[in-house]
Design a protein that fits this description.
Blueprint (H helix, E strand, L loop, with lengths): L13 H10 L8 H14 L3 E5 L2 H11 L7 E5 L4 H8 L4 E5 L21 E4 L11 H11 L2 E5 L7 E2 L2 E2 L6 E5 L12 E5 L5 H8 L5 H5 L19 H12 L1 H18 L1 H5 L12 E2 L6 E3 L3 H13 L15 H6 E3 L6 H5 L2 E3 L8 H17 L1
Length: 378
């Protein structure tokens, strides 16, 4: 494609830092660059603890483990999300209660959560779609009222905010993605954020294959041993080295993505004003991170035609999640609470436009021109 849907960001220092990691003779993780990435998140986002992981999927799994989810218990989340949000809890034997979304933000409808709570409910997993915050005050109030854990799926929400608070730092646990499709990347990777001291030791053990290896490296024990269940959630220093270059350049990345996002939003506004398509909605309480730009067409048939039309212009666009409750595994491991008023209908209308660091405003102008041509031809 002349204009790809995504291209992994590369700023220039990544290869220098990877070479430095190689020369440090420390490749297996928790070295210099892992520590620098964690320190960046603590300082920039205001979290007390930040542990790099091999993916956001694994960060979610850790959040589910640390929330002490047991077989037969239930977790509330939107159906409009990636499978990892559900998988993390299903692996613990939990059942998923899917709740409808808000059509404006595509986030879980906070006003429907309480009705989904029963005696088996143990957690809420809000998903900050497109880096736009869920209405977290209401969610946290409900969680406190019913003594539920909150595991924020902030895969798309790194350096986005809710009323001045960084996404991923509001609930009990926050989960980030640094996959190559995200704003800041390390190929595959993620992070788990939390604030309470009580979670630290167990989180370190879980992340280090069930051993107290982290204590050993801090000199707190003379040898490390198997102390609890765990897995291998620690990423390589090579991945962390790549990520740190991205985090150092976050302002440059943010500025370029935001310029394209604002261009799309401004130039496509005339089509929205005519009722031909819908543009993203950003609530007053949210500061987004230009993770993605999407439009909504009249229906799925029109969306299919638009994606095909853009492809003919050498422009790659894409639809997004198929709602989990409609999938075979969704029916096996969960159920939909109440009426599906918006989840399916809105998901079938949504089209994601190209958005990445190297995308220029000139590229975005070609995308806009093609969308105008599509609606004029129709």
């Amino acid at each position: 494609m002349k204009i790809d849907f995504n291209r992994p960001a590369f700023l220039g220092k990544e290869t220098d830092y990877i070479k430095q990691a190689v020369m440090n003779r420390k490749l297996c993780g928790d070295g210099e660059f892992t520590k620098k990435c964690s320190a960046w998140m603590k300082e920039k986002l205001g979290t007390k603890y930040s542990l790099l992981t091999t993916s956001c999927t694994h960060a979610l799994e850790m959040g589910a483990y640390l929330s002490d989810i047991k077989p037969g218990e239930e977790v509330i989340m939107p159906s409009y999300t990636f499978v990892s949000t559900a998988d993390a809890f299903v692996l613990r034997g939990a059942r998923v209660a899917f709740v409808d979304i808000r059509p404006d933000t595509m986030n879980i409808d906070e006003n429907l959560i309480e009705a989904a709570i029963n005696e088996k409910t143990r957690a809420i997993a809000p998903v900050h779609y497109a880096g736009v915050a869920c209405e977290m005050d209401t969610i946290m109030e409900i969680a406190q009222k019913y003594r539920l854990k909150v595991v924020e799926d902030a895969a798309q929400g790194v350096n986005a905010y809710y009323k001045g608070r960084a996404l991923g730092t509001i609930g009990d646990f926050g989960c980030f993605s640094f996959h190559e499709t995200k704003n800041y990347i390390m190929g595959e990777g993620g992070a788990l954020l939390f604030q309470k001291d009580e979670y630290l030791e167990r989180a370190e053990v879980l992340r280090e294959k069930g051993t107290d290896r982290s204590k050993f490296f801090r000199g707190q024990v003379d040898k490390y041993t198997w102390v609890d269940f765990g897995s291998s959630y620690l990423p390589s220093e090579l991945n962390a080295a790549y990520l740190y270059a991205q985090l150092e350049g976050c302002e440059e990345i943010d500025a370029r993505r935001m310029a394209v996002w604002n261009y799309y939003n401004k130039e496509l506004r005339p089509l929205a004003d005519k009722g031909l398509l819908e543009l993203p909605f950003i609530p007053d309480y949210a500061k987004h991170n230009a993770h993605m730009f999407y439009i909504k067409t009249k229906d799925m048939e029109e969306r299919t035609e638009l994606i095909s039309f853009l492809k003919e212009r050498d422009i790659c666009s894409a639809f997004h999640y198929v709602p989990l409750h409609s999938a075979a595994a969704g029916r096996k491991f969960g159920y939909f609470v109440g009426e599906d008023r918006y989840t399916t209908k809105e998901s079938e209308r949504l089209t994601r436009l190209p958005m990445y660091y190297d995308l220029t405003v000139e590229d975005a102008a070609e995308v806009v021109e093609a969308i105008f041509d599509f609606y004029i031809i129709r």
